[in-house]
Each structure stands twice: as structure tokens, then as C-alpha cells.
Input
Amino acid sequence: MIPIHEQISMSITEDIRNGTLRVNEKIPSEHSLMEHFSASRGTIRRALKTLSEQGYVSTLHGKGTFVATNRETKSIASDFVGLGELLSYSSEELKTKIVRQETLDAKELSIELPDSLNASKLLLLERIRFLGDLPVAYLKNWINIERLPELDTVNFTKTSLLSAIEKITGESGLSGTRDFKAVLAPLEISEALCVSQGYPLQFLHQVTYLNDSEIIEFSDVWMDSNQIKISVDLVRKSTSSGISR
Output
């Protein structure tokens, strides 16, 4: 049986998807929802928490809860989606600025390369992602251009890198690893994101693999954590009954 709070969140989700509740519209108050669904305040709050975690709603202190999008969002911490795909769920317009797109000799790079990378030439792609006019992320991607020379002609202001890789290779099962940590904004990144040097940012390092485990891309991404939320859905597995008390 589906828990009551999940039934409520599913019902509100359906209202959002079919347009009964529109983007930027304030949803009914907790009290109204309690009466409508004949549910307790705690149950309503659990349902709203689910909707918030899925990205459907956002709460403004003192003003209420509003519809943020009519599509469920993904998380770059638990789903292998690109940052552009994640940001496309925002109600703000997603824009991309290409800072640099250049093929370089891998041996001349001053960065640490993945151990199993098999490429002598790499395409360096540097971009800034905007929501509206606000810069929210700076991306540096190094791609095995020898494996995918067609990428050099892709318009990355309109196309995400992962989507382009999938289209060219015909592979839909890309996989990867992502490491996260908090960092202080270096000068170059702070200027690009219009924040002060030393401003706290969320940093992501990624390695992307094709289906045959070949490394096709690796990247560094700096994100303004005040603008980009990273969430993870977790399920606790049952533990051994032999745990001491």
C-alpha cells in the first residue's frame, strides 16, 4: 500500500504536470491541504518535502510554497546527467557561454591525467553556465578528440556534451565517476562567476566512460552552491539482527 504522504505528493505532482498548478503559482497552504486530503500537518509536510526534493516546488520564507517546474529534476550526485540537463529544469532560462574550445597535446598539459586515458590529443572545452543572467557554474572538460573528432564541430551553446557523445557514438549507456568537495574560488573562477576570490564553491571532478570502459572525457566543474542544489536519494538496507544493544 502506498503511504498517505506519497499519495498526496503524487496527487499534487499530477496537478503540476497537467497545468492545474502552474509554474511560479503559489500552492495551497498547509491548512488547506490538510482539509482537502483529510491528513495531518506532519503528513502534509512530508509530502511537500518530497516535492521539494524532486524539484517541483520551492519555499520562500514568509511567503509560502511555489511551483518551481512541471518536470521532476535529477541529481548530479545520484544520476549520470550533465549539469546542463540538471539546470534545464529551472524556471530561469539556461544560457551557455563558450570561453575556450581548443585541441591540445595531452603531454603538454599541466594537469593530472587519468591513469588509463589513451589519447595524445584532447579537446579542451571551457564554458560558463547561466540561469538567466546569473553565472552559476564554470566547466572545464577534456575530451578524447581522437576518438570523437566530430565533437570539434558541435555547437556547445545549444547541445550538452554528454548528449553529443551519445549521439556520435550511438551509445546510451555512458557511465562515470564523480567526486565532490568544497573549495574556495580561485581567481579565474571567481571572476567568471562574479563572486569574490575565496568564495565557497562546490567542486566536482568527473571521469566519463564509454560502454567498453574507455575514458572519453574528464572534467572539473565549479558550482555556486547557493544556486545549485545537490541532493541524493538514499535507502537504508536492513541490518543484521546480530547487532549488539
The CA atoms of residues 141 and 219 lie 4 Å apart. The chain has six helices and eight strands.
